[in-house]
């Protein structure tokens, strides 16, 4: 029998797998926030005159194609990968959820027009849209954050609207509307508390999608630009040395995999129970 951590007061029950996944996520979050202060070398310093140098006491993961410390660059890359992805997913989910609940509560022409516009945007392949926009506008941190948020807002909108439409038909919403409550009250006090659990799970999934898309754009040379680098950029820079300097490529791949898999496992093992107000 697997052990689990229960917090009945908050409606949480976390398994050992969920605890392990949350520790990995907290580790990378901590690395992104304070890691660069403790990196052995500055990310741009050339510390090895032998490019693709081996693992040593001074270079824990070897050096890259210019002789820079891979370990230090992975630490700095966490700030870009985690930071950009987190900012984008928060922007996308806040916009999408707010628009979805508003469309469900207001209905009518507002719901129809907003849904058609976002459906049209959602029909464009995400990677193709990202490539075209970055090639047209140029790549920078603010552009990447806004672009990734725009790409994933329609999906968040559709998910939140589907939940809100079902919640909008419940008796407690009908009663609140009958007693004269306004739309903002219905959204904030009646609909949102009853869809917050699935919305948080959806936020975690979209965070994974954004990490993978950002890494893909960086691997194609359209993400974070030199001298800065996220984990996808590190793979692109050192892919030529895979046959004789594997850590330079494998280490950032492991970082991406550990973060995305941990977020998925945490979502699967952290059900958030929202009290059914209709009962």
- CATH class reads Mainly Alpha
Helix content: 55-70%
Tell me the total number of β-strands. Answer: 2
**Ends distance:** 33 Å
CATH architecture: Orthogonal Bundle
Q: State the strand order across the main sheet.
A: 1-2
Sheet with most strands: 2 strands, antiparallel
* Secondary structural class: mainly alpha
How large is the count of helical segments?
9
| Average pLDDT figure | 84
**Helix-strand pattern:** EEHHHHHHHHH
What oligomeric state do the depicted chains represent?
single chain
Describe what this molecule looks like in 3D.
The protein has 279 residues and is an all-alpha fold. The protein has a single domain (4-269), classed as Orthogonal Bundle (MetI-like fold), CATH 1.10.3720. It has nine helices and two strands, in the order E-E-H-H-H-H-H-H-H-H-H. The chain has helices spanning 16-34, 70-106, 108-122, 126-137, 141-168, 171-178, 183-219, 231-238, 247-269, and strands at residues 4-7, 12-15. The protein has a two-stranded antiparallel sheet with strand order 1-2. A hairpin with a 4-residue loop joins strand 1 (4-7) and strand 2. Residues 6-11 and 273-279 have low confidence and may be disordered.
